[in-house]
Task: inverse folding
DNA sequence: TGGCTGTAAATTTTT
DNA sequence: TTTACAGCCA
């Protein structure tokens, strides 16, 4: 079961994004609405107040989990404006996510009791894009550059490698791309790469491909995400007058999540903050070294550790009073994180008077299915005690852990939402849709055009495409223009000739419409006439087709929120985040620990605390001690999400893909202070999860697996009799026609024939 | 060209 | 287990 059911909700989110209407509120910390001006400092504790009022000079605010970081940052922002220290356009405020930016904008407006205009507030990338739209010509780049997504990047790189006759197996393109990205994250241009940087991959040839890749990007007048930062830093370095212009503009700089900055973001900030004069910059960075969990994305925890050296005279303020969690949870989290060495040092203290709270429950289960079952049972029992589903979350280390939980939650009839995973703009239909738009708006955008030339099928295969590509390359023309020419000259034969002529005619007509009737009508017409919408309408086979059409319809509506196609495309490339969390929905949240940063729940379940999974063996193999510390920070992040209760689980045997693996409890469990832990005996309530249903368990011995070492658990198989009537959450009721183990073929009254896993249905009769 | 079949591989993913 | 992709044949 994927999120496909929820996709219209996701799509609704796009529209909201344009208006900045939503945000997460942590009630205790939110400023009370309708406070009169200058009351904005009321309710801040001493350190928070100091952090707000220390406006001049470099400042590092070390804000532990739940210490009111966001409140301090937004109040500080408002304070600067209210005190008349600067105009909104003189403040640069940088965040990592669009969600954080949106939230900050909303909260500042709330304090000021009016919308603030003219802010330079956004993510590193959106701010850089904004700057680069102005200065791109300095680097010989078109101001109208397109921003490529990850998929485009990979396709482009693959093409280059194929053209250079590289064996894609021995040198996987994703790995090469990763190397290039890491170089960009470190502000290294192709010419900066020396043999010393480039020894571990492709025999030192990687930099050659980096150079080719950059050249090709320029030819396409395109930027990838890394380029947005890289180009701006290059411009700042080469053209000091551009930098000076920004120095004059920005009087205050605010940076959120400083512990997650990578080298190039750090350089960008430093360039903007350091002036020629002796006067220190007014740069305030907020962060928590204990919550740095993105080193694998190039984040340099060193940036925060050496802040005082980078900005001499910097003040450091620690926010340690936690208003979120019970004292026990804080002590447990502190006990774990204390095992790390490279820390700034900081101890969370309870900010509110209150009970000590419950101990952390550590629960061992025989296997991963039992683990999921125990979690579902506990959720049900807590819900019976008046705890709302929305107050609970299951935080996992890796994506593959989701499945058993989805199954157990569904079986228990617990409403849940999966946060993260496939993001909105990653959906095939949305990417196709935007590719159509890009090809419409930018006839030279070859990557977009390639994506859609044969979607729906127009008889263009690999061979035809590579011929076209070759031809375009020879003539130095974009694909669209080349194709037009070839069609005009009758160089394309057979079925493809007619379909492609019609395809190109669609674009011509849509461009006319674009000029006359605006972009919404034009895009709709293009998707209609090109047969793209029809393709999904006629797709009877896939269950998702209807959802995809819904998504596309929502996308069309979303385009209307923007004045031009260009604006929409910029938005979808930069601002489209997976902001799926809706606090008002009464569902259990299931997400990775990474996705949980910044959120909080009354009850948190932390499954899979086993050596190898958490800490992840793979991380440890790659990063050694430093990686172990990062895993430990992840544990800390997980624990500190909980307000009242935390359950840690570990299974003796875990199914990973096909086979069972035995595992021992995570070392992080040993690191929890005993006095705050309660170890539960393994519970085995065989039938509880299934109630009075018709499920039967077969005792089929696990002959196919090698698990001599799993004496406690027997492979469970759900058997549904042929002819039984079953009920599915989406498809309604239907009759089982065929059963192949757990794989059922069901004829649903409404939805027709579907093949479906037994655990997704409930037996009715 | 495109559909079928067998094989290898499988973290985390703010933009 | 699922998924992606290369290689094969109609």
Result:
């Amino acid at each position: 079961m994927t999120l496909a059911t929820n996709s219209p909700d996701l799509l609704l989110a796009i529209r909201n994004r344009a208006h900045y209407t939503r945000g997460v509120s942590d009630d205790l910390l939110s400023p009370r609405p309708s406070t009169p001006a200058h009351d904005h400092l009321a309710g801040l504790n001493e350190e928070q107040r100091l952090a707000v009022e220390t406006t001049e000079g470099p400042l590092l605010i070390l804000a532990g989990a739940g210490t009111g970081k966001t409140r301090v940052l937004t109040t500080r922002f408002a304070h600067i404006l209210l005190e008349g220290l600067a105009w909104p356009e003189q403040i640069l405020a940088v965040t990592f996510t669009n969600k954080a930016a949106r939230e900050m904008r909303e909260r500042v407006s709330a304090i000021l009791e009016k919308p603030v205009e003219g802010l330079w507030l956004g993510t590193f990338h959106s701010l850089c894009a904004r700057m680069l739209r102005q200065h791109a010509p300095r680097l010989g780049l078109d101001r109208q550059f397109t921003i490529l997504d990850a998929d485009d990047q990979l396709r482009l790189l693959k093409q280059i490698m194929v053209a250079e006759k590289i064996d894609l197996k021995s040198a996987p393109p994703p790995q090469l791309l990763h190397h290039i990205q890491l170089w960009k994250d470190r502000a290294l241009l192709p010419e900066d790469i020396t043999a010393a940087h480039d020894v571990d991959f492709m025999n030192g040839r990687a930099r050659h491909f980096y150079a080719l890749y950059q050249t090709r990007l320029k030819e396409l007048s395109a930027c990838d995400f890394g380029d947005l930062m890289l180009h701006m830093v290059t411009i700042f370095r080469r053209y000091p007058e551009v930098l000076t212009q920004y120095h004059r503009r920005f009087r205050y700089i605010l940076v959120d999540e400083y512990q997650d900055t990578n080298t190039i973001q750090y350089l960008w900030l430093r360039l903007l903050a350091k002036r020629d004069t002796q006067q220190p910059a007014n740069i305030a960075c907020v962060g928590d070294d204990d919550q740095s969990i993105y080193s694998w994305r190039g984040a340099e925890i060193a940036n925060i550790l050496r802040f005082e050296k980078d900005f001499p005279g910097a003040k450091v303020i620690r926010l340690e009073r936690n208003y979120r969690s019970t004292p026990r949870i804080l002590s447990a989290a502190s006990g774990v994180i204390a095992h790390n060495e490279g820390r700034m040092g900081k101890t969370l203290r309870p900010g509110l008077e209150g009970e000590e709270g419950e101990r952390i429950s550590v629960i061992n289960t025989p296997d991963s299915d039992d683990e999921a079952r125990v979690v579902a049972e506990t959720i049900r029992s807590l819900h019976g005690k008046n705890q709302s589903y929305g107050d609970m979350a299951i935080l996992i280390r890796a994506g593959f852990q989701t499945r058993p939980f989805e199954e157990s939650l569904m079986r228990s009839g617990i409403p849940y939402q999966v946060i993260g995973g496939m993001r909105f703009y990653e959906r095939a239909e949305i990417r196709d849709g935007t590719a159509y738009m890009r090809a419409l708006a930018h006839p030279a955008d070859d990557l977009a055009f390639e994506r859609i030339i044969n979607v729906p099928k127009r008889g263009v295969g690999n061979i035809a495409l590579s011929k076209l590509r070759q031809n375009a390359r020879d003539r130095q023309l974009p694909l669209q223009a080349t194709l037009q020419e070839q069609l005009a000259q009758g160089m394309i034969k057979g079925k493809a000739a007619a379909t492609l002529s019609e395809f190109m005619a669609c674009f011509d007509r849509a461009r006319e419409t674009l000029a006359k009737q605006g972009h919404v009508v034009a895009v709709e017409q293009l998707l209609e006439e090109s047969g793209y919408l029809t393709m999904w309408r006629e797709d009877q086979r896939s269950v998702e087709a209807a959802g995809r059409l819904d998504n596309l319809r929502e996308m069309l509506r979303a385009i209307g929120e923007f004045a031009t196609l260009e604006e929409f495309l910029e938005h979808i490339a930069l601002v489209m985040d997976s902001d799926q969390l809706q606090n008002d929905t009464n569902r259990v949240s299931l997400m990775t620990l990474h996705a949980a940063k910044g959120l909080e729940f009354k009850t948190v379940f932390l499954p899979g605390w086993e050596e190898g999974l958490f800490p992840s063996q793979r991380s440890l193999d790659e990063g050694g001690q430093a990686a172990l510390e990062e895993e430990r920070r992840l544990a800390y992040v997980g624990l500190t999400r909980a307000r009242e209760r935390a359950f840690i689980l570990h299974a003796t045997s875990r199914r990973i893909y096909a086979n069972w693996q035995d595992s021992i409890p995570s070392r992080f469990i040993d690191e929890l202070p005993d006095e705050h832990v309660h170890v539960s005996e393994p519970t085995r309530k065989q039938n509880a999860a299934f109630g009075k249903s018709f499920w039967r368990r077969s005792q089929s011995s696990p002959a196919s697996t090698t698990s001599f070492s799993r004496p406690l658990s027997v492979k469970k198989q759900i058997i549904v009799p042929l002819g039984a009537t079953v009920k599915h959450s989406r498809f309604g009721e239907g009759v089982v026609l065929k059963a192949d183990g757990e794989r059922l073929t069901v004829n649903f009254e409404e939805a027709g024939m579907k093949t479906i896993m037994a655990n997704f249905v409930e037996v009715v009769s």
User: Anything to note?
Assistant: DSSP finds 28 helices and 23 strands in chain A.
